[in-house]
Amino acid sequence: MAPSIETNGLTKTFASVLAVDHLSLEVMEGEVFGLLGPNGAGKTTTIRMLACLLSPSEGSGKIAGHDVVKNASRVREIVGILTENPSLYERLTAYENMDFFAEAYNLSNPQEKQNRIRALLEFLNLWERRNDRVAKFSRGMKQKLAIARALVHNPPILFLDEPTTGLDPESAKGIRDLIESLSRYEKHTILLSTHHLEDAEKLCNRVMIINKGKSVVVGTPEELRDRIADEPVLKVTLTKLDNRIIDAVRGLEHVRRVSIDDSSTGLIITVDDTKSVTPEVVRSIVRADGMILSVNVLRPTLEDAYLKLVKEERT
Q1: Quick one: pLDDT band at residue 111, thresholds 50, 70, 90?
Q2: On the chain, which terminus has fewer CB atoms closer than 10 Å, C or N?
Q3: Which of 199, 226, 253 is the last residue of a domain?
Q4: How many domains does the chain contain in total?
């Protein structure tokens, strides 16, 4: 199966500034692929080249097999883009904004256009506000309308640049739920640029960390967490602790270190392998009359992996 999004040595230079440096990536059909990186890493510039808003200085990019330079008009027909600043027409109503962009995408059949606009605004809980001027909308409502605008021509591929920036927690969750729904149920391919590691961890099948326009690493969130994990660690929370329980755990063959957590009722246990050792740990605690409330494997977060990998790239 051919990639929906593909770049090979994609490069963009502004005067003497190298914004994107020979970037190569593949995003498969139906995948949510995250671009992660600090400010100025080249995420937005990459998206703008792939959406045919900027021309590459070198290299190539293809969207569903169409070259972003040679077939730019076709690419624009099959992608939807949410920029970091949505740039809606605030003097127009929500419906008028949607109608304007539907016309721009050549949705000329009046009934088909009306049905599509209504379906999107209802899906995003904006139909009741369709006749309100956008200037009256909250940031979250504007973001939803901008996504509806990007979807009006039903594109198979979406570029979303910082879709939850500046939103309150409830609105941000609504946008994440929408992205998940678009990927899972409507099979859109989504390239997501974000500073929010929570968004990437929850939504992305794979991510690429970029820094100074270059790819640092590509993988699933799980693979990136594994890459920086040093030793497997268990956290066992109990109703109470005593020396008998601690000594029982320390005496196990495959337990390396045992410490007490800040709550004074939990054990932090470094082991050789969580799958094989966890049952032994549980048995030893129960035999020592310990009452276990929970057992968890402590693993690095995607944020931990991101911070460490970017730091390594800078040094």
Answers
A1: very high
A2: C
A3: 226
A4: 2
Question: Phi then psi for 301, rounded to 5 degrees?
Answer: -85, 170
Report CA 178 to chain centroid distance, whole Å: 12
- 308 or 121: which carries more pLDDT confidence? 121
Same domain, 211 and 246: no
Q: Give the type of residue at 258.
A: V
- pLDDT classification of 315: cutoffs 50, 70, 90: low
Q: Are residue 202 and residue 261 in the same domain, yes or no? A: no
Q: State the amino acid at position 314 in one-letter form.
A: R
Given this model, what pLDDT does residue 85 score? 80
Say which residue, 69 or 107, is predicted with more confidence.
69
Tell me the one-letter amino acid at 261: D
Tens digits of per-residue pLDDT, 35-79?
Answer: 999 888 999 999 999 999 999 999 999 999 999 999 999 999 999
Per-residue model confidence (pLDDT) at position 129: 97
CA nearest neighbour of 26 among 170, 168, 201, 206: 206
Same domain, 90 and 236: no
Give the torsion through C-alpha atoms of 72, 77, 82, 84, to 10 deg.
20
Crossing angle between the packed helical segments 110-123 and 94-104, to the nearest 10 degrees? 130
CATH number at residue 86: 3.40.50.300
Domain limit, last residue, from 226, 256, 273:
226
As a whole number of angstroms, the distance between CA 110 and CA 177 comes to: 30
- Whether the CB-CB separation of 9 and 3 falls below 8 Å is answered with no
Q: Does the global pTM surpass 0.85?
A: no
